[in-house]
Q: What sequence folds into this?
């Protein structure tokens, strides 16, 4: 039909173009992996909270001091003992990054990490669903935008509403921290040891670390966790880490991993260590005003000792109004259903429109193309889609020591 | 150079996929440099998630290329540029340029789902089954959207009092 619009000259794609596409493809892989990795920072704080809860009675009154946020549209109908959905937001209040995002009002915070956790007291697994912050969603009152814009413009309330409208997940409890929270927990633990293959520095954050095994205090962890303009020294040259924000997320992941290991080795019989950790955690998290300290305690005890089951939405890259975004892809409905334990993901070969009752909570208004009852026909469907292997520039990455 | 299995399969599929992406992009953009940029980006995205899409790489690449080309047209519109081919010569080339502008404008006026289906079916020349696979939907839905989308385009084009480019059989 449109033959007459074709290029009259024959087109032969060059080897250069192929090489360039593969180069860029590899960098895209890195980006997608980093989105998944940032959730680990949230997990570390959650694990910290769970560990604290396990230490017992000392927790109660201190939890009353946790800062609260009004989130009026949370679900309040869940009875004690019912499964609860926690929305966990790792907020990035880094003022320096505001200029980089034109969609963001000056001086606001941005939801850097968005994680849903479903705690079912009757089960030994905690379902964890990370939401990419660049996910394109229909934000009530604002239209199509990235999901972290919902937080930037309407705070937790609009984010909760957006998640309900787009994903069909109702939130019971809201928890927030920023990436300093992870560092503060690290400080309370007496610092963290990380091994650096090469000296690292970032003039923007004051990061300046030698190679080798380094005992990092809280402020150094903050610097490491914030740095996006890292240079590493190798072969007599200060190289720039080209991955910028993605490299940062990877280093945050390294911090979180080390922290996670440290937390599991904590001596739960030593009340002093528990109290120190508790103080750090309490100062660094905010919780919705409707959740009492007893609720929190019950929640954390539900998490303690259970195995995390991580779920991720299948996504595809798109450009929306000039910005790189991610769109939910085929199979997203099944992931939501798996998260809500409504139904296990169906084998892709035999999807049915009625396999996910009740429809109102599992399919929800997912928007085109996902509201189509025939999603799941993709033979390649799998809940883990952006897990391609990846390593950041090795010389810029800390490892445990 | 990596020689692992996905890269090899990608290398083999590359010429056909690149040609497909280029054709879709050029039909919308009418400009070799821009169409090549779109081709490169579409193939880069395919490479990044090759493991997952290799089973339906052609419709997937066509869809991404069309989306990128439409994004590019939008960006061009923001710069208030009317991009006639530099080597515009003869009435045929002129007609193509005008058709392209009108087509892009009309495509933008379609609902997203109809637009995607029309682009896949008629710009990328994909089959109904391919289109359904790429958009994660059923063949029935593709048929419905294609029918509605095409009807809208035809009537809008008729309103322009121009020779229809939507005649069945490409007459």
A:
């Amino acid at each position: 039909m449109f033959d007459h619009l074709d290029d009259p000259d024959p087109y032969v794609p060059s080897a250069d173009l192929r090489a360039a596409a593969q180069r860029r493809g590899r960098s895209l892989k890195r980006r997608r992996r980093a989105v998944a990795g940032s959730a680990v920072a949230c997990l570390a704080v959650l694990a910290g909270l769970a560990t604290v809860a396990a230490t017992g009675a000392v927790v109660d009154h201190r939890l009353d001091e946790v800062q609260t946020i009004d989130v009026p549209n949370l679900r309040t109908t869940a009875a004690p003992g019912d499964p609860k959905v926690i929305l966990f937001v790792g907020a990035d209040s880094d003022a320096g990054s505001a200029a980089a995002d034109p969609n963001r009002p000056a001086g606001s915070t941005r939801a850097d990490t968005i994680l849903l956790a479903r705690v079912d007291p009757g089960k030994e697994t905690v379902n964890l669903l990370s939401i990419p912050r660049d996910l394109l969603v229909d934000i009530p009152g604002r239209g199509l935008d990235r999901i972290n814009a919902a937080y930037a413009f309407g705070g937790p309330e609009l984010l909760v509403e957006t998640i309900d409208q787009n994903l069909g997940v109702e939130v019971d409890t809201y928890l927030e921290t920023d990436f300093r929270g992870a560092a503060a927990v690290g400080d309370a633990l007496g610092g963290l040891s990380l091994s650096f293959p090469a000296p690292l520095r970032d003039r923007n954050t004051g990061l300046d670390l030698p190679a080798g095994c380094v005992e990092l205090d809280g402020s150094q962890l903050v610097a490491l966790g914030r740095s996006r303009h890292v240079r590493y020294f190798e072969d007599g040259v200060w190289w720039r880490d080209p991955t910028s924000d993605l490299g940062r997320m990877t280093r945050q992941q390294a911090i979180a991993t080390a922290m996670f290991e440290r937390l599991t080795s904590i001596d739960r019989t030593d009340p002093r260590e528990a109290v120190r950790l508790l103080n750090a955690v309490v100062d660094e998290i905010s919780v919705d005003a409707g959740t009492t300290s007893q609720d929190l305690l019950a929640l954390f005890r539900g998490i303690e000792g259970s195995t995390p089951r991580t779920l991720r939405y299948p996504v595809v890259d798109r450009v929306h109004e000039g910005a790189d975004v991610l769109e939910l892809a085929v199979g997203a409905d099944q992931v939501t259903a798996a998260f809500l334990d409504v139904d296990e993901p169906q084998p892709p070969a035999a999807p049915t429109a009625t396999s996910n009752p009740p429809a109102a909570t599992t399919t929800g208004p997912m928007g085109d193309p996902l509201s189509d009852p025939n999603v799941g026909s993709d033979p390649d469907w799998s809940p883990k889609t952006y897990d391609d292997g990846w390593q950041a520039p090795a010389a810029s990455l800390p490892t445990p020591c | 150079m990596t020689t692992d299995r996905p890269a090899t399969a990608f290398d083999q599929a590359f010429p056909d996929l690149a040609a497909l992406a280029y054709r879709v992009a050029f039909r919308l953009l009418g400009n070799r440099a821009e169409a090549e940029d779109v081709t490169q980006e579409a193939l880069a995205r395919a490479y990044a998630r090759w493991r997952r899409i290799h089973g339906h790489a052609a419709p997937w690449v066509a869809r991404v290329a069309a989306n990128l080309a439409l994004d590019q047209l939008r960006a061009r519109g923001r710069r208030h540029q009317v991009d006639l081919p530099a080597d515009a010569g003869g009435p045929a080339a002129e007609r193509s340029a005008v058709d392209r502008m009108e087509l892009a404008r009309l495509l933008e006026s379609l609902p997203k789902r109809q637009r995607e289906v029309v682009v896949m079916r008629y710009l990328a020349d994909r089959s109904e089954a391919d289109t359904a696979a790429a958009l994660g939907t059923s063949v029935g839905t593709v048929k419905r959207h294609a029918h509605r989308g095409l009807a809208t385009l035809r009537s809008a084009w008729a309103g322009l009092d121009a020779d229809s480019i939507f005649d069945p059989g490409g007459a």
